[in-house]
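Example for tutorial group B:
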C-alpha cells in the first residue's frame, strides 16, 4: 500500500515540476517578447514561415503563452494546459524543422529567450520540453488509452498547421506582399572599396572586367577600374565636333563602344574604347530627349516629351541605315500631369533583351522587349500605387513645377538577367529605423516569375548613401559619396546571366 502511495506522490510531483517548468518557460518567453515587442516583430518579419502573418502572430502568441501559463497554474485546468503546452511545443519544433530543411534560407537567429542558441540547440531544447509535456499528460490522464491517441492527433494537426503557414506565407510574400521585407544573412557582402576624386561621378558601364565611371562635372573624362578596384586608368573622350551648347551630357559605355549624349542639344556621339574618339551619330534635328540607354550598337532607347501634351514618352533611335525613330506612346501611364508623375529610370539587359522602366514616385515598373513592346507592368512591394505629388501649372509660361517635395519610392535600379535590383526609399513594416539611417535597402525581384525575392543592405559611407549602382556577374558596384564599393553577391541566391 505504501508503494502505491509513494508512486502516486511521485507522479504528482513529476507533474508539478513539469508544469512549473512550462509555466516559467512561457511566462519568461512572453515577458521577453512584450518588453522588446518591436524587436520581436522584426524577427518574426524575417521568418520564412511567418512573415506574412507577423501582426496577428506577434499579438496572439503573447496571449497564448500567458493563457497556457494560467491554465497550468490552476489544478482544475492543468490537464488542458498540458495538452495546450504539448501542442505549442510541437508547433515550435515543427517550425524549426521546416526552417532547417525546407526553407529557402535560415534566419540569423531564433529570437526570444533562446536568441543565443543555434537552431539545432533550439531544436533539442524544444524536443525536450515537448517530451516533458507529453509525459505530464500521460501521468495526469485518468484514461491512458485516450491520452495516447490524442497526442499523435495533436502532433499531426500541429505539423499540418506549420506546413500550411509556410505555404501560405511564401505565396503571400512573393505574390501578395504586405510590404514586409526579408533580409537574408550572407546574401551580399562588401569585398572592396576605393576613394574617388569627387562625388559627381557615376557608373557608365562595364565589360565584366573593367568598370567605367563618368563625371557630371567633367563629362569628357572617364575613369576605369579593374574588377578589384585597385588598378585605375584615365581616358579623355575626343569629340569630332565640340561647338554644341552642351548642358546635360550622359556617357554610356557598352564595350567595345561608348556613347556620349546630350538630349538638350540634341546630339549623340559614338566611339570605340580602343581610342576614345567619338564621331557624330545624330545631330541637327528636333529629337530632343531627357534619358537614353543603349539597346544595341546601333539602337538607343530614349525618353522625350510629346510636342502637344508635353507628357513623357518612350521611344527608340535606330541608326542601322538612316535614322529611324519609333515611339511607344502607351508605355508610360499618366496619373497627374504626365511629366513629373511618369519620371523614372530605365535599364536594358542584353542577355535577356529586357527593357525596364521604373517610376520614381510610385510602386510600378514596366518590362518590355528591345522594341519597347510591353511584356507586363510589375509592382514593387511597397504600397504607394499613386504618385504623391503636387504640381503647379504656371499659365503665363506654360511651365509645370513641383509645388512640394515629392515622396520618392524607387531611387535607383539595376538589372542582371532575370533579376531586378531596386534601391527603395520607403521603409517596410517591422523594420529598424536605426538601420535605415545606417544603410540603403536593395530589393530583389525576379522579372520572369513576377515575384519579390528578398532584400539586403548597402551600408552608408560617412553618412553618404548610394547614388549609382551596376551589376556585373555576381558583383554589385556602388558609388557612395566619394567612394566606389564592391559587393559580392552570394551565388546561392544570385545566378549570374551567361552568354547564349
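The residue assignment follows.
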Amino acid at each position: 500500500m505504501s508503494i502505491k502511495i509513494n508512486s502516486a506522490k511521485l507522479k504528482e510531483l513529476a507533474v508539478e515540476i513539469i508544469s512549473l517548468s512550462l509555466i516559467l518557460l512561457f511566462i519568461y518567453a512572453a515577458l521577453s517578447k512584450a518588453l522588446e515587442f518591436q524587436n520581436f516583430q522584426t524577427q518574426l518579419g524575417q521568418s520564412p514561415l511567418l512573415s506574412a502573418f507577423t501582426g496577428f502572430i506577434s499579438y496572439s502568441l503573447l496571449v497564448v503563452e500567458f493563457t497556457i501559463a494560467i491554465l497550468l497554474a490552476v489544478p482544475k485546468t492543468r490537464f488542458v494546459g498540458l495538452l495546450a503546452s504539448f501542442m505549442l511545443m510541437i508547433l515550435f519544433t515543427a517550425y524549426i524543422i521546416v526552417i532547417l530543411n525546407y526553407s529557402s534560407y535560415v534566419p540569423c537567429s531564433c529570437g526570444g529567450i533562446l536568441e543565443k542558441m543555434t537552431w539545432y540547440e533550439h531544436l533539442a531544447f524544444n524536443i525536450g520540453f515537448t517530451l516533458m509535456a507529453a509525459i505530464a499528460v500521460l501521468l495526469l490522464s485518468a484514461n491512458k488509452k485516450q491520452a495516447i491517441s490524442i497526442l499523435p492527433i495533436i502532433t499531426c494537426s500541429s505539423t499540418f498547421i506549420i506546413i500550411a503557414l509556410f505555404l501560405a506565407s511564401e505565396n503571400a510574400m512573393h505574390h501578395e506582399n504586405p510590404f514586409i521585407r526579408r533580409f537574408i544573412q550572407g546574401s551580399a557582402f562588401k569585398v572592396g572599396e576605393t576613394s574617388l576624386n569627387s562625388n559627381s561621378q557615376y557608373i557608365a558601364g562595364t565589360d565584366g572586367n573593367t568598370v567605367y565611371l563618368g563625371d557630371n562635372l567633367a563629362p569628357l573624362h572617364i575613369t576605369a577600374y579593374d574588377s578589384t578596384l585597385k588598378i585605375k586608368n584615365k581616358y579623355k573622350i575626343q569629340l569630332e565636333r565640340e561647338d554644341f551648347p552642351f548642358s546635360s551630357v550622359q556617357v554610356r559605355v557598352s564595350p567595345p563602344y561608348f556613347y556620349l549624349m546630350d538630349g538638350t542639344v540634341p546630339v549623340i556621339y559614338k566611339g570605340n574604347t580602343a581610342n576614345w574618339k567619338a564621331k557624330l551619330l545624330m545631330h541637327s534635328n528636333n529629337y530632343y530627349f531627357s534619358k537614353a540607354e543603349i539597346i544595341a550598337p546601333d539602337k538607343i532607347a530614349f525618353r522625350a516629351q510629346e510636342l502637344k501634351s508635353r507628357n513623357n514618352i518612350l521611344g527608340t533611335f535606330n541608326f542601322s541605315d538612316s535614322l529611324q525613330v519609333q515611339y511607344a506612346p502607351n508605355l508610360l501611364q499618366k496619373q497627374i500631369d504626365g511629366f513629373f508623375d511618369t519620371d523614372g529610370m530605365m535599364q536594358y539587359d542584353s542577355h535577356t533583351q529586357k527593357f525596364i522602366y521604373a517610376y520614381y514616385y510610385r510602386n510600378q515598373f514596366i518590362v518590355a522587349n528591345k522594341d519597347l513592346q510591353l511584356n507586363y507592368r510589375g509592382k514593387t512591394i511597397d504600397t504607394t500605387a499613386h504618385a504623391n505629388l503636387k504640381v503647379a501649372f504656371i499659365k503665363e509660361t506654360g511651365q509645370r513645377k513641383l509645388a512640394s517635395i515629392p515622396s520618392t519610392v524607387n531611387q535607383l535600379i539595376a538589372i542582371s538577367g532575370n533579376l531586378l535590383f531596386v534601391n527603395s526609399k520607403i521603409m517596410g513594416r517591422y523594420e529598424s529605423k536605426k538601420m535605415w539611417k545606417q544603410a540603403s535597402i536593395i530589393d530583389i525581384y525576379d522579372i520572369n516569375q513576377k515575384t519579390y525575392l528578398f532584400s539586403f543592405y548597402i551600408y552608408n559611407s560617412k553618412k553618404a548613401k548610394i547614388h549609382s549602382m551596376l551589376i556585373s556577374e555576381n558583383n554589385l558596384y556602388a558609388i557612395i559619396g566619394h567612394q566606389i564599393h564592391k559587393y559580392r553577391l552570394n551565388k546561392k541566391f544570385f545566378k549570374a546571366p551567361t552568354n547564349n
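The radius of gyration is 30 Å. Compare this with the pattern of hydrophobic and polar residues in the output above.
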